[in-house]
Amino acid sequence: MIRIENLHKSFGDLEVLKGMNLHIPKGQATGIVGPNGSGKTTLIKTILGLVKPDSGVIHVNDVKLNGNWLYRQDIGYMPQVARYPENMIVRELLEFIKGLRNQEAVFEEELISQFNLGPELDKSLRVLSGGNRQKVGATLAMMFNPQLLFFDEPTAGLDPQASFKFKKRVEKEKQDGKTVLITSHIMSELEQLVDHVVFILDGKIRYYGSMENLLEENKEERLEAAIARMMENSPDPGIEARETEVTFQ
Questions:
Q1: pLDDT tens digits for the chain (249 residues)?
Q2: Are strands 196-201 and 179-183 parallel, antiparallel or unpaired?
Q3: 200 in Cβ contact with 38 (< 8 Å)
Q4: Residue 173: which H helix or E strand, with range?
Q5: Would you call 215 exposed, middle or buried from its count of C-beta atoms within 10 A (0-12, 13-18, 19+)?
Q6: H helix or E strand, kind and range, residue 102
Q7: Which CATH superfamily is 77-176 part of?
Q8: Beta bridge partners of 194
């Protein structure tokens, strides 16, 4: 589904991605974790075509990214902070995105009902709460039934009920065979939603494998403790780190 080879990206003198290699197969739920500034967001934006790498190769669904945007039609993306035209009402935004994508919004009504967005449809985006903006973002990401889903800190701002509904929806997407990638600083959330973990530090992948193996290798019972231990034991940034080799069936 996603194959990345020797990916490099710098912003001026700051090297953000340092020869990253990654293979995420179809139908896998993966959590991408790491401290602020580790390269998580740059990696995601590079896969989405929002950031151009300096070198390296990216394949999505066996399509090499070379400026062709059509591969994005099978991607749903929910950013941590969505920027929408403030003067639009929610209903107009949904119609606008449907026009841009020119795809059937298979799950639009279902998601509106699930996230209780009906009362918000005729409100201006300017007056929406942060939580309702997140619900709109989740709806836009999933309503076209894409096979690849990116969620960046998806439950930030959601109340407990909305957070629970979102997680239930992600579970359904996983059961339907979707490939799901989630970045979050809430480790307990990732424990619920993902099966595999990518740990990024200083622009390199320090671990990629199953949640179970990660906990076992670090002799911990919780993901938060395992990640903290890996950060404590991480080699000096100037030293080449070992990338865990994982074979998937």
A1: 899 999 999 999 999 999 999 999 999 999 999 988 899 989 999 999 999 999 999 999 888 998 778 889 999 999 988 888 999 999 999 999 999 999 999 999 999 999 999 999 999 999 999 999 999 999 999 999 999 999 999 998 899 999 999 999 999 999 999 999 999 989 999 999 999 999 999 999 999 999 999 999 999 999 999 999 988 887 654 433 344 333 333
A2: unpaired
A3: yes
A4: helix 160-175
A5: middle
A6: none
A7: P-loop containing nucleotide triphosphate hydrolases (3.40.50.300)
A8: none
CB 77 within 8 A of CB 85: no
Q: Distance (Å, rounded) from C-alpha 40 to C-alpha 36?
A: 8
Length of the chain equals 249
CA distance 21 to 44: 13
Distance CA 214, CA 200 (A): 14
**In contact, 196 and 28? CB cutoff 8 Å:** yes
Sorted by where each begins, the domain ranges of the chain are 77-176
Q: Could you give the strand order of the β-sheet that contains 55-60, starting from the edge strand earlier in sequence?
A: 14-24, 2-11, 55-60, 63-64
Side-chain-side CA neighbours of residue 245 (13 Å): 0
Question: Which pTM does this prediction carry?
Answer: 0.88
Q: How many CA atoms lie within 13 A of 119 on its CB side?
A: 6
Residue type at position 186: I
| Beta carbons of 125 and 66 less than 8 angstroms apart | no
Distances (CA, A) of 78 to 7, 63, 72, 182: 23, 22, 13, 10
Parallel/antiparallel/unpaired status of strands 196-201 and 29-33? parallel
